[in-house]
Amino acid sequence: MVIIQGGTLVCPDGLRRGDVALEADKVVRIASSIEPAEGDEVYDARGCWVFPGFIDAHTHMQCWTGIDWTADSFETGTRAAACGGTTTIVDYATADRGVTLPDALDEWHKRADGTCTANYAFHMALSEWNERNRADLAIMRERGVCSFKSYFAYDHLRLDDAETLELLESLKPLGGTLCVHCENGTLVNALQKRVYESGIHGPEGHPLSRPDVCEAEAVSRLLYLAHLAGDARVNVVHLSTKLGLEAIRAAKARGQKNIFVETCPQYLLLDDTCFLRDGQDGLEGLEFVMSPPPRKPADRVALREALVNGEIDTIATDHCSFNIHGQKDRGRDDFRKVPNGGAGVEHRPALIATTFADELGPTDLCRLMSENPAKVFGMWPAKGRLAEGADADICVWDPSVSWTISAATQHQNVDHTPYEGFKAKGRARLTFVNGVLAARDGEPTGAQPGRYVSR
């Protein structure tokens, strides 16, 4: 057995001091004191919080955009995740136009199986709506996929409103959740052209071409469609604006109950001044080109308040890493050509624990980054809780460690981090995945115990 001794346990019913025993891939005992037997592995957790492993329910690993592969494979991305305390990711498998859902899922399994340090599950993104895809939704459910994605932006991915409504109606009897990228793609296309033709070509043009109204309109439209579909289950991904938040509040006020809200560290920590930083190489600001972009300071303040007040259900990363050199720098003179995406899967727990140290305690961190993701995406009660019988995914978190985030020391396979120089307080001392020690003190052990999570 593995015995974790003397920590503060973050349990579903609150905090308690005690020990945890792991055997094979399960938590087998929680008690105030567990006496080790000969041959047991014993780990000291005094001064630490013992969490159920963190879950990042929004990643894009080993993803082909049509021009580039993302910098992180499933191997490097899940290794980095475990180093930061995340034991499960939910990645977006994508069925491009002309590709069936089962074939797309097979391809994502081919990329991930046998390579992962952390566990992995898949959402299924649809880029077209037809009778074949409608029929294949049930096959996806049989194969452990209970959440799906559609887009209101990107011409090669987006569905129209009627198609989105039919998708919502088709998912409802299956108990499926639809995650939606909420930006008005028609407006974004027009505004990109307008901003570029006005003479703004650098990365500062990116947020100008995707204003808050583009998100808020799409959020409102999604929630009206979900209402029309009989209060279908929807997850608003990467919420970034105060206007979008107000649209969610309005839908809840009119009685919709199946609305789940995700935001990301970049919208809680950064704002659009990041695009104006001075640099020596002409590449400053490129690392922040992600969609949606970091917003106005007032948006950041509104989201932080909503998070503390319990209006946001989950914090994920939208980890979609591209190198500045050789990838993002192709758009240094045309922001429209910069691959959209940022890195964060390794640093999310430290960023949130540090920046909200005075507002969120360990039970809040557990709710936002472990318990709620497990509940929303069909992994509860095996994951997301520290309890006997739950999966042996554990993060032992040392809140006393001070360290600095840097691309030079990260395990994300990318040449930068949007959080370069961030002074973090707290770090994963031990990360167990399926009962196997996968990372210690932010460094990988070399084990690859991650496996597919059928939901």
Secondary structure layout:
Elements: E1 2-11, E2 14-23, E3 26-31, E4 41-44, E5 49-52, E6 54-59, H1 74-84, E7 86-95, H2 101-112, E8 119-126, H3 131-142, E9 147-151, H4 161-171, E10 177-181, H5 185-197, H6 205-208, H7 212-228, E11 234-236, H8 242-253, E12 259-263, H9 265-269, H10 297-308, E13 314-315, H11 348-355, H12 362-376, E14 394-404, E15 423-433, E16 436-440, E17 443-444
Helix pairs in contact: 4-7, 7-8
What does this structure look like?
It is a single chain. With 455 residues, the chain is α/β, with parallel strands linked by helices. It folds into 2 domains: 2-50 and 388-400 and 425-444, Urease, subunit C, domain 1 (Roll); 53-376, Metal-dependent hydrolases (TIM Barrel, Alpha-Beta Barrel), CATH 3.20.20. It is 29% helix and 24% strand. The chain has 12 helices and 17 strands. It has helices at 74-84, 101-112, 131-142, 161-171, 185-197, 205-208, 212-228, 242-253, 265-269, 297-308, 348-355, 362-376; strands spanning 2-11, 14-23, 26-31, 41-44, 49-52, 54-59, 86-95, 119-126, 147-151, 177-181, 234-236, 259-263, 314-315, 394-404, 423-433, 436-440, 443-444. Strands 1, 2, 3, 4, 5, 14, 15, 16 and 17 form a 9-stranded mixed sheet that branches. An 8-stranded parallel sheet has the order 6-7-8-9-10-11-12-13. A hairpin with a 2-residue loop joins strand 16 and strand 17. Helix 7 packs parallel to helix 8. It starts with a strand and ends in an 11-residue tail after the last strand.
